[in-house]
Amino acid sequence: MTQELSVVADIGGTNTRVALCLNGKILEDTIRRYRNAENAGIGPILDDYLGAQQVTPVAVCVDMAGPVHDGVGTLTNLDWKVDAASLRSDTGAARVAVLNDLQAQGFAVAHLGHDSLLPVLTGREPAKDAVRLVVNVGTGLNAVPVYSQGGRTMVPPAEAGHISLLARTTEELRLIDWIAERHGQPGVEDILSGRGLERLYAWVCHDEGDGEPLAAAEIMAGFEAGQLRAQRAARLFVHFLGRYSGDLALITLPFGGIYLVGGVTRHLGPHLRALGFAKAFADKGRFNAYMTQFPVDLVTDDYAALRGCAAHLAELTTT
Protein backbone atom coordinates (compact mmCIF):
# COMPACT_ATOMS: atom_id res chain seq x y z
CA MET A 1 0.00 0.00 0.00
CA THR A 2 1.24 3.52 -0.76
CA GLN A 3 1.05 6.61 1.36
CA GLU A 4 -1.43 8.18 -1.11
CA LEU A 5 -4.37 6.36 0.42
CA SER A 6 -7.13 7.86 2.56
CA VAL A 7 -9.48 6.11 4.98
CA VAL A 8 -13.25 6.51 5.27
CA ALA A 9 -15.64 5.23 7.92
CA ASP A 10 -19.43 5.00 8.11
CA ILE A 11 -20.72 4.74 11.70
CA GLY A 12 -24.18 3.18 11.85
CA GLY A 13 -26.32 2.27 14.80
CA THR A 14 -24.94 -1.27 15.11
CA ASN A 15 -21.87 -1.50 12.88
CA THR A 16 -19.09 0.69 11.57
CA ARG A 17 -17.72 0.08 8.09
CA VAL A 18 -14.22 1.22 7.18
CA ALA A 19 -12.46 1.30 3.81
CA LEU A 20 -9.44 2.72 2.06
CA CYS A 21 -9.94 5.04 -0.88
CA LEU A 22 -7.81 6.47 -3.67
CA ASN A 23 -8.63 9.44 -5.90
CA GLY A 24 -12.21 9.62 -4.62
CA LYS A 25 -12.99 5.92 -5.09
CA ILE A 26 -13.30 3.36 -2.33
CA LEU A 27 -11.31 0.15 -2.71
CA GLU A 28 -14.08 -2.36 -2.15
CA ASP A 29 -11.78 -5.25 -1.27
CA THR A 30 -10.56 -3.22 1.74
CA ILE A 31 -14.01 -2.78 3.33
CA ARG A 32 -14.18 -4.12 6.88
CA ARG A 33 -17.09 -4.18 9.32
CA TYR A 34 -16.79 -3.66 13.09
CA ARG A 35 -19.46 -4.18 15.73
CA ASN A 36 -19.96 -0.98 17.70
CA ALA A 37 -20.81 -2.86 20.90
CA GLU A 38 -17.33 -4.38 20.89
CA ASN A 39 -15.53 -1.02 20.67
CA ALA A 40 -15.27 2.09 22.84
CA GLY A 41 -15.30 4.53 19.92
CA ILE A 42 -14.11 5.23 16.40
CA GLY A 43 -10.51 5.72 17.57
CA PRO A 44 -9.85 2.06 18.48
CA ILE A 45 -11.58 0.91 15.29
CA LEU A 46 -9.39 3.05 13.04
CA ASP A 47 -6.29 2.07 15.03
CA ASP A 48 -7.03 -1.63 14.49
CA TYR A 49 -7.96 -1.17 10.84
CA LEU A 50 -4.98 0.97 9.85
CA GLY A 51 -2.64 -1.31 11.75
CA ALA A 52 -3.93 -4.32 9.84
CA GLN A 53 -3.68 -2.45 6.53
CA GLN A 54 -0.27 -1.00 7.41
CA VAL A 55 -1.33 2.42 6.19
CA THR A 56 -0.81 5.96 7.43
CA PRO A 57 -3.61 7.80 5.60
CA VAL A 58 -3.19 11.21 4.01
CA ALA A 59 -6.82 12.03 4.82
CA VAL A 60 -9.72 10.73 6.92
CA CYS A 61 -13.47 11.20 6.54
CA VAL A 62 -15.96 9.79 9.04
CA ASP A 63 -19.74 9.99 8.71
CA MET A 64 -22.11 9.31 11.59
CA ALA A 65 -25.78 9.20 12.51
CA GLY A 66 -26.00 12.36 14.60
CA PRO A 67 -25.51 16.13 14.54
CA VAL A 68 -22.08 17.51 13.57
CA HIS A 69 -20.86 21.03 14.30
CA ASP A 70 -17.36 22.44 13.71
CA GLY A 71 -15.85 19.01 13.25
CA VAL A 72 -17.38 17.50 16.38
CA GLY A 73 -20.25 15.03 16.29
CA THR A 74 -22.27 13.03 18.78
CA LEU A 75 -24.12 9.90 17.77
CA THR A 76 -27.87 9.77 18.30
CA ASN A 77 -28.07 6.17 19.51
CA LEU A 78 -24.53 5.54 20.78
CA ASP A 79 -22.41 7.10 23.53
CA TRP A 80 -19.57 8.02 21.16
CA LYS A 81 -18.07 11.40 20.35
CA VAL A 82 -16.31 11.95 17.03
CA ASP A 83 -13.80 14.80 17.04
CA ALA A 84 -11.83 15.90 13.98
CA ALA A 85 -8.88 17.05 16.10
CA SER A 86 -8.64 13.66 17.83
CA LEU A 87 -8.90 11.83 14.51
CA ARG A 88 -6.04 13.92 13.13
CA SER A 89 -3.89 13.16 16.16
CA ASP A 90 -4.74 9.44 16.23
CA THR A 91 -4.26 8.74 12.51
CA GLY A 92 -1.56 11.22 11.50
CA ALA A 93 -3.71 12.37 8.58
CA ALA A 94 -3.15 15.89 7.29
CA ARG A 95 -6.80 16.37 6.34
CA VAL A 96 -9.82 15.24 8.37
CA ALA A 97 -13.57 15.66 7.84
CA VAL A 98 -16.53 14.64 10.01
CA LEU A 99 -19.94 14.47 8.32
CA ASN A 100 -23.49 13.67 9.25
CA ASP A 101 -24.48 10.39 7.57
CA LEU A 102 -27.05 12.10 5.37
CA GLN A 103 -24.44 14.62 4.20
CA ALA A 104 -22.28 11.65 3.17
CA GLN A 105 -25.20 10.28 1.14
CA GLY A 106 -25.52 13.70 -0.46
CA PHE A 107 -21.89 13.72 -1.55
CA ALA A 108 -22.39 10.24 -3.02
CA VAL A 109 -25.40 10.67 -5.30
CA ALA A 110 -23.54 12.31 -8.19
CA HIS A 111 -21.23 9.30 -8.31
CA LEU A 112 -23.78 6.46 -8.28
CA GLY A 113 -24.27 4.41 -11.42
CA HIS A 114 -27.52 3.01 -12.77
CA ASP A 115 -26.75 -0.32 -11.11
CA SER A 116 -27.02 1.46 -7.73
CA LEU A 117 -30.43 3.01 -8.42
CA LEU A 118 -33.97 1.67 -8.70
CA PRO A 119 -36.16 4.11 -10.70
CA VAL A 120 -39.40 5.17 -9.02
CA LEU A 121 -40.44 8.15 -11.19
CA THR A 122 -38.83 9.00 -14.52
CA GLY A 123 -38.88 12.82 -14.65
CA ARG A 124 -36.83 14.77 -17.15
CA GLU A 125 -33.15 14.33 -18.00
CA PRO A 126 -31.08 15.99 -15.23
CA ALA A 127 -29.08 19.06 -16.20
CA LYS A 128 -25.43 19.46 -15.21
CA ASP A 129 -25.04 20.88 -11.69
CA ALA A 130 -28.81 20.77 -11.10
CA VAL A 131 -29.90 20.62 -7.46
CA ARG A 132 -30.41 17.13 -6.05
CA LEU A 133 -32.44 16.11 -3.01
CA VAL A 134 -31.72 13.18 -0.68
CA VAL A 135 -34.53 11.85 1.53
CA ASN A 136 -33.53 9.38 4.24
CA VAL A 137 -36.15 7.17 5.89
CA GLY A 138 -34.65 4.74 8.36
CA THR A 139 -34.46 4.81 12.15
CA GLY A 140 -35.33 8.50 11.77
CA LEU A 141 -36.24 10.90 8.98
CA ASN A 142 -34.27 13.70 7.35
CA ALA A 143 -33.70 15.31 3.97
CA VAL A 144 -31.00 17.53 2.47
CA PRO A 145 -30.52 19.39 -0.80
CA VAL A 146 -27.25 18.85 -2.67
CA TYR A 147 -25.75 21.82 -4.53
CA SER A 148 -22.98 21.44 -7.14
CA GLN A 149 -21.00 24.16 -8.88
CA GLY A 150 -17.70 24.00 -10.70
CA GLY A 151 -16.71 20.62 -9.35
CA ARG A 152 -17.53 21.51 -5.75
CA THR A 153 -20.43 20.07 -3.76
CA MET A 154 -22.24 21.59 -0.79
CA VAL A 155 -24.59 19.56 1.40
CA PRO A 156 -25.95 21.78 4.20
CA PRO A 157 -27.06 20.15 7.46
CA ALA A 158 -30.78 19.91 8.14
CA GLU A 159 -33.35 18.54 10.59
CA ALA A 160 -36.16 18.20 8.09
CA GLY A 161 -37.79 15.25 9.82
CA HIS A 162 -39.13 17.35 12.66
CA ILE A 163 -41.41 19.67 10.72
CA SER A 164 -45.07 19.59 11.71
CA LEU A 165 -47.32 16.78 10.51
CA LEU A 166 -50.37 18.24 8.81
CA ALA A 167 -53.69 16.66 7.84
CA ARG A 168 -55.77 17.00 4.66
CA THR A 169 -58.52 14.45 5.31
CA THR A 170 -60.68 13.37 8.23
CA GLU A 171 -58.73 10.08 8.37
CA GLU A 172 -55.50 12.00 8.74
CA LEU A 173 -57.04 14.22 11.42
CA ARG A 174 -57.92 11.12 13.43
CA LEU A 175 -54.36 9.89 13.03
CA ILE A 176 -52.78 13.17 14.13
CA ASP A 177 -55.07 13.48 17.14
CA TRP A 178 -54.12 9.94 18.19
CA ILE A 179 -50.39 10.69 17.85
CA ALA A 180 -50.72 13.98 19.73
CA GLU A 181 -52.35 12.22 22.68
CA ARG A 182 -49.39 9.87 22.99
CA HIS A 183 -46.32 11.75 21.71
CA GLY A 184 -47.01 15.47 22.01
CA GLN A 185 -46.64 17.72 18.96
CA PRO A 186 -46.79 15.39 15.92
CA GLY A 187 -43.89 15.69 13.49
CA VAL A 188 -43.42 14.00 10.14
CA GLU A 189 -40.80 11.65 11.62
CA ASP A 190 -43.50 10.27 13.93
CA ILE A 191 -44.92 8.40 10.93
CA LEU A 192 -42.05 8.33 8.40
CA SER A 193 -39.43 6.14 10.09
CA GLY A 194 -39.11 2.59 11.39
CA ARG A 195 -40.96 3.59 14.53
CA GLY A 196 -43.36 5.59 12.37
CA LEU A 197 -44.47 2.50 10.49
CA GLU A 198 -45.12 0.84 13.85
CA ARG A 199 -47.19 3.84 14.96
CA LEU A 200 -49.21 3.79 11.76
CA TYR A 201 -49.99 0.13 12.25
CA ALA A 202 -50.92 0.69 15.90
CA TRP A 203 -53.22 3.53 14.85
CA VAL A 204 -54.85 1.34 12.16
CA CYS A 205 -55.56 -1.24 14.87
CA HIS A 206 -57.04 1.53 17.06
CA ASP A 207 -59.05 3.00 14.19
CA GLU A 208 -60.48 -0.40 13.25
CA GLY A 209 -60.95 -1.50 16.87
CA ASP A 210 -59.02 -4.71 16.29
CA GLY A 211 -55.48 -6.10 16.35
CA GLU A 212 -52.31 -5.66 18.43
CA PRO A 213 -49.29 -3.43 17.71
CA LEU A 214 -46.39 -5.11 15.88
CA ALA A 215 -42.71 -4.41 15.25
CA ALA A 216 -41.73 -2.99 11.85
CA ALA A 217 -40.33 -6.31 10.61
CA GLU A 218 -43.55 -8.09 11.54
CA ILE A 219 -45.59 -5.41 9.78
CA MET A 220 -43.56 -5.86 6.60
CA ALA A 221 -44.00 -9.62 6.82
CA GLY A 222 -47.73 -9.11 7.24
CA PHE A 223 -47.77 -6.75 4.29
CA GLU A 224 -46.02 -9.29 2.07
CA ALA A 225 -48.50 -11.94 3.23
CA GLY A 226 -51.48 -9.74 2.29
CA GLN A 227 -52.56 -8.87 5.84
CA LEU A 228 -55.08 -6.03 5.40
CA ARG A 229 -54.12 -3.88 8.39
CA ALA A 230 -50.44 -4.09 7.42
CA GLN A 231 -51.33 -3.12 3.87
CA ARG A 232 -53.36 -0.15 5.07
CA ALA A 233 -50.45 1.01 7.26
CA ALA A 234 -47.99 0.63 4.37
CA ARG A 235 -50.31 2.54 2.05
CA LEU A 236 -50.55 5.41 4.55
CA PHE A 237 -46.78 5.40 4.95
CA VAL A 238 -46.13 5.63 1.22
CA HIS A 239 -48.84 8.28 0.82
CA PHE A 240 -47.19 10.52 3.41
CA LEU A 241 -43.73 9.81 1.95
CA GLY A 242 -44.90 10.88 -1.49
CA ARG A 243 -46.48 14.05 -0.13
CA TYR A 244 -43.41 14.89 1.98
CA SER A 245 -41.06 14.34 -0.98
CA GLY A 246 -43.28 16.43 -3.22
CA ASP A 247 -43.39 19.30 -0.72
CA LEU A 248 -39.60 19.30 -0.47
CA ALA A 249 -39.31 19.16 -4.26
CA LEU A 250 -41.25 22.41 -4.55
CA ILE A 251 -39.02 24.01 -1.91
CA THR A 252 -35.67 22.90 -3.40
CA LEU A 253 -36.50 22.30 -7.12
CA PRO A 254 -34.25 19.22 -7.45
CA PHE A 255 -34.08 18.88 -11.22
CA GLY A 256 -30.98 16.74 -10.65
CA GLY A 257 -33.20 14.12 -9.06
CA ILE A 258 -34.62 12.95 -5.74
CA TYR A 259 -32.80 10.06 -4.07
CA LEU A 260 -34.54 7.91 -1.47
CA VAL A 261 -32.19 6.25 1.02
CA GLY A 262 -32.53 4.36 4.30
CA GLY A 263 -33.62 0.91 5.40
CA VAL A 264 -37.37 1.55 5.47
CA THR A 265 -37.54 2.91 1.92
CA ARG A 266 -35.35 0.04 0.74
CA HIS A 267 -37.85 -2.49 2.10
CA LEU A 268 -40.83 -0.65 0.61
CA GLY A 269 -39.02 0.40 -2.57
CA PRO A 270 -40.41 -2.27 -4.89
CA HIS A 271 -43.96 -1.38 -3.77
CA LEU A 272 -43.83 2.43 -3.95
CA ARG A 273 -45.61 2.67 -7.29
CA ALA A 274 -48.34 0.19 -6.38
CA LEU A 275 -48.96 1.91 -3.03
CA GLY A 276 -49.56 5.32 -4.60
CA PHE A 277 -46.26 7.20 -4.24
CA ALA A 278 -46.56 8.91 -7.64
CA LYS A 279 -50.09 10.19 -7.03
CA ALA A 280 -49.25 11.56 -3.58
CA PHE A 281 -46.01 13.11 -4.88
CA ALA A 282 -47.75 14.99 -7.70
CA ASP A 283 -50.91 15.97 -5.81
CA LYS A 284 -50.21 19.73 -5.86
CA GLY A 285 -53.29 21.18 -7.54
CA ARG A 286 -52.37 23.36 -10.51
CA PHE A 287 -48.74 22.24 -10.11
CA ASN A 288 -49.55 18.56 -10.75
CA ALA A 289 -48.00 18.58 -14.23
CA TYR A 290 -44.98 20.53 -12.97
CA MET A 291 -44.18 17.73 -10.52
CA THR A 292 -43.63 15.22 -13.32
CA GLN A 293 -40.27 16.88 -14.11
CA PHE A 294 -38.49 15.48 -11.04
CA PRO A 295 -36.91 12.03 -11.36
CA VAL A 296 -37.07 9.89 -8.22
CA ASP A 297 -34.73 6.94 -7.58
CA LEU A 298 -34.25 4.51 -4.72
CA VAL A 299 -30.57 4.12 -3.78
CA THR A 300 -29.73 0.43 -3.46
CA ASP A 301 -25.95 0.76 -2.92
CA ASP A 302 -25.14 -0.31 0.64
CA TYR A 303 -21.79 1.50 0.45
CA ALA A 304 -23.17 4.86 -0.73
CA ALA A 305 -22.16 6.69 2.47
CA LEU A 306 -18.57 5.41 2.15
CA ARG A 307 -18.53 6.54 -1.48
CA GLY A 308 -19.77 9.96 -0.39
CA CYS A 309 -16.96 10.28 2.16
CA ALA A 310 -14.42 9.34 -0.51
CA ALA A 311 -15.87 11.84 -2.99
CA HIS A 312 -15.81 14.57 -0.35
CA LEU A 313 -12.14 13.95 0.42
CA ALA A 314 -11.32 14.06 -3.29
CA GLU A 315 -12.94 17.49 -3.54
CA LEU A 316 -11.09 18.74 -0.45
CA THR A 317 -7.72 17.71 -1.85
CA THR A 318 -8.26 19.84 -4.97
CA THR A 319 -8.52 23.07 -2.95
From TrEMBL:
One term of GO molecular function: ATP binding
UniProt keyword annotations, A-Z: Kinase, Transferase
InterPro entries: ATPase_NBD, Bacterial_glucokinase, Glucokinase
Top-level taxon: Bacteria
Recorded GO CC terms: cytosol
Membrane-spanning parts: none
Pfam family, one: Glucokinase
GO BP: any one term: glycolytic process
PANTHER family attached to this UniProt entry: GLUCOKINASE (PTHR47690)
Similarity comment: Belongs to the bacterial glucokinase family.
Protein name: Glucokinase
Provenance organism: Antarctobacter heliothermus
The organism's taxonomic lineage, starting at the top: Bacteria, Pseudomonadati, Pseudomonadota, Alphaproteobacteria, Rhodobacterales
